[in-house]
Design a protein that fits this description.
The protein has 388 residues and is α+β, with helices and mostly antiparallel strands. It is built from eleven helices and 18 strands.
């Protein structure tokens, strides 16, 4: 660890510590993090510390973590990095995340370190909070939805947190807004237009990994390239599958068809279920396939709420993390059909709640027109500053 002592304002002198030791980071995070459910704080702190340790040891990209101590007492934390898979408006960019500050001077000291980091790696801007790992992090400071239960893969925050005000005093400006949408309707009408030229299927996790290259090709050139924030690549695909693999067997078992009226189910969905062993599939990853070519036309990837299972509860909540429809297949109802099939299948395994996450919320009216079957659950703001 390296440290720098600063005298800022009229408050006692503070010490900025660069942390590289996993156990020290985990302890520090347990001291300063504000987690809505106290029982989950150790899990969140452990995942962040493990992630940072792995990036230090891999040396695949640059990352740092800083803690502020005031008279030996921790008052703030931040991490910053240049992630090769993260893009801002299609370009690589330095980011900061997990910013916690009990006062303005603490925030100022932490952001000085992050800005120096950005300058040293020749990044022209610094953006955040972009908190990795995405399993417990994500994009932005929460501004709406504080009464909502924590959901794995969705950022969390404290109501009336002063951090936004601190950042704005330091010259950071809001650049993008994101939302999570609660899926309030189980059936989307656009799915009725899907042609029999497509079929749907489920694969095992191993079979999905075998198709990774094709799935990543499907994602290339998609709208992700122009979003204010995006993070993808092979690491993200593997991460989502690992989340599904982590679910305890007893928490997510096939319950049978007794809960639904099979006679009212789309025959294409019945075909999908009949074509696989429902006991061995990855139930949060429905695929749409073009029959004539066998090409993957669309895919949904869900993240199970591992907070539920960490607390010893059955798995009932799903984060709909990724939706992909190939450029050649848009406007054919596949997204709606994948939603309908995905919800039905997940409900057969005990799921009851679905939330689409990291949705760009630049125009509320546009979002509502695209997702008329959903309602806003949470909102987040990402800040940005040019560094010189």
């Amino acid at each position: 660890m390296q440290s720098t002592t600063l005298g800022i304002g009229s408050l006692p002198r503070i010490t900025v510590v660069e942390a590289t030791d996993r156990s020290w980071i985990e302890k520090a995070l347990n001291d300063v993090l504000e987690v809505p459910n106290d029982r989950l704080k150790p899990l969140v702190a452990r995942e962040i510390a493990t992630y940072l340790e792995s990036k230090y040891s891999e040396g695949t990209f640059q990352v740092k973590a800083f803690m502020v101590l005031r008279n030996g007492t921790p008052t703030g934390f931040v991490s910053c990095q240049l992630d090769p898979f993260y893009k801002s408006h299609g370009r690589a960019c330095a980011t900061f995340g997990w910013l916690v500050a009990s006062d303005f001077e603490t925030c100022q000291a932490l952001m000085i370190e992050c800005e120096d980091f950005a300058k040293n790696i020749k990044s022209r801007k610094l953006r955040g909070p972009v908190a990795f790992p995405k399993g417990v992090g994500g994009y932005g400071i929460q501004v709406q939805g504080f009464n909502r239960q924590m959901l794995y893969g969705v950022p969390f925050g404290r109501a009336r947190s002063p951090v936004r005000r601190y950042l704005e005093r330091l010259g950071y400006a809001p650049d993008a807004t994101y939302a999570s949408m609660e899926v309030s309707e189980s059936t989307w009408k656009s799915a009725k237009n899907v042609s029999n030229k497509f079929r749907f299927e489920y694969l095992s996790l191993d079979e999905l990994r075998e198709k990774k290259d094709e799935i990543l090709d499907l994602a290339k050139g998609s709208f992700y390239a122009v979003l204010p924030d995006s993070s993808g690549g092979t690491d993200r695909f593997d991460e989502i599958l690992s989340f599904q693999e982590t679910v305890p067997k007893e928490a997510f078992q096939f319950k049978g068809f007794g809960a639904i009226n099979v006679k009212k189910v789309d025959p294409l969905f019945i075909e999908a279920w009949n074509s696989c062993d429902l006991e061995s599939i990855a139930p949060l990853a429905p695929l749409a396939i073009e029959r004539s070519t066998g090409r993957i036309a669309g895919l949904l990837l869900g993240v199970p709420d591992l907070y539920e299972t960490a607390l010893g509860n059955p798995l009932t909540r799903i984060n709909v993390d990724t939706a992909l429809v190939g450029a050649d297949f848009r406007g054919k109802g596949l997204f709606s059909a994948l939603n309908n099939l995905g919800q039905l299948t997940a409900r057969l395994f005990g799921a009851a709640y679905f939330e689409g996450t990291s949705i760009w919320y630049d125009n509320e009216a546009a979002v509502r027109s695209i997702f008329p079957h959903s309602k806003t659950a949470r909102r987040y703001v990402v800040y940005q500053k040019r560094v010189k």
